[in-house]
Amino acid sequence: MDRKGMIHLYIGNGKGKTTAAIGMAIRALGWNMNVLFAQFLKTTSTGERNILDNFPEKLLFFRLIQRHSKFLWNMTEKELSETKEDILRGWRKIRTEIFSGNYDIVILDEILDCIQCDLLDLREVLKDISERPAKVEIVCTGRDAPKDFYEAADYITKMGSLKHPYDRGIKARCGIEY
After folding, report:
1. Integer Cα distance of 80 and 73 in angstroms
2. What is the dihedral of CA 10, 11, 15, 20, to 10 degrees?
3. Which of 25, 58, 60, 152 has the most neighbouring CB atoms within 10 Å?
């Protein structure tokens, strides 16, 4: 079956962007497709990693090696600079995997936040995504996307938070938010 890969954006301040991307990964696995699931800016243990690691023949779960596990806004200038180096090094590895032709779907979880925070260059990432092998479906998540991504996207889904327990001081819960 010849298929043209499309670009999906899951954006917004609401919960569910990563969850929607995981749903797409599971659907693809159900149809015997190969998936690359890359996570940016996540350094702690998560339920999605625990389950997706169980499909090594069909899914590569790639989490960038980052020297610092703090939130960006809590980092010093030196830590931010090192994080930018780490993310760029990780992107270059992911880019190689995208161009390998081994994957039907590539999920770039929180890559849009990396771009918005100037940790990755918008033009470089968009160029790489645009020049990928024709069959590769791309999913990008993050709070927002630059205008150029809106124009390149085939699907844009915005998740908005109308109410969230965090607003009442309730921290993220294992198995629900991570």
Report:
1. 9
2. 0
3. 25
Summarised one tens digit per residue, pLDDT across range 42-94 is: 777 788 888 888 898 999 999 887 777 778 888 788 888 898 999 999 999 99
Q: Which domain holds residue 16?
A: 7-168
Q: Please report whether residue 60 resides in a domain.
A: yes
**Sequence-ordered list of residues with C-beta below 8 angstroms from that of 89, at least 6 positions apart, any chain:** 64, 65
Structure tokens at 94: 């992911």
Per-residue pLDDT reduced to its tens digit, 96-107? 999 999 999 999
For residue 147, being part of any structural domain is answered with yes
User: pTM value?
Assistant: 0.90
Query: What CATH number does residue 80 fall under?
Result: 3.40.50.300
Q: Which of 162, 174, 160 is nearest to 13 (CA)?
A: 160
For residue 29, the tally of other CB atoms under 10 A from its CB is: 17
2 within a domain of the structure (yes/no): no
In the chain, the N- to C-terminal Cα span, in Å, equals 36
In total, how many domains does the chain have? 1
